[in-house]
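hey so u asked for the seq, here:
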Amino acid sequence: MRLLQVLGLVVTAAAFSGCATSGRGAVPPGTPQPDRFLFERGNEALDEERWLTAREYFKQVTETYTQSPYRPDAKLGVGDTYLGEGTAEALVLGINEFQEFLSFYPTHARADYAQYKLGMAHYRQMRAPQRDQSETRAALRDFQAFVERYPNSELLPEVREKVREIKDRLSEADFGVGLFYFRQRWYPGAIDRLTAVMKDNPEYTRRDRVYFFLGESLIKVDRPAEALPYFEKLLAEFEASEHLEEAKVRVETIKTQAAAKIPS
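ran it, structure tokens below
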């Protein structure tokens, strides 16, 4: 379904491009490097956020000057205009441009930029944690591919931040399900989902809540010995948490009850 959507948008964009060809900026007669002229005009329009104008200049380079050294950067420029527009349709077209770039120029000096923008196109379509997370997972996939392929890129610190943010977004969604199960008193379901959060994302920024409700769920099913380490982790790893005081009480209670069961 997604492939059909992309193909449909590409066809539409191509048709529109053909209709708009006559409106493209003409290259002045005698211009020694017409491809460079068009590429520079495209960059100027891009900087001014004139997305359609910039795209037409870049497309003239990619379609007319197929051997131009500016062609790869012009293709990236086309993708950037779609991300600049930011509509759902434009972002899908941007994804197609960056994927094509990586297919045509996998060893290009700016391949890392294309991979980064590919991730950003999905990132821009992420939905709230309680809604469908398909685009969130797609963004994570592309950013993780970036980390693996371009460990020396200047963009790596920003990509790592995005990976952390996206993982937390996915964990937030899973935590919400676990909390729902807890409130519905389906503690086995809560235990399974909250355990999965910690397994998939042990560095989850808000894991104090996971520790607390996982511990509470284990107590509810009479498994206090398994609950104790989670309350202790909460106390050890977080100086500030809304669950700190309750966790302290749980630790003291579990230890006191355990000591009372030891035969004298």
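The CA atoms of residues 80 and 232 lie 48 Å apart. The two ends are 69 Å apart (CA to CA).
lmk if thats what u needed
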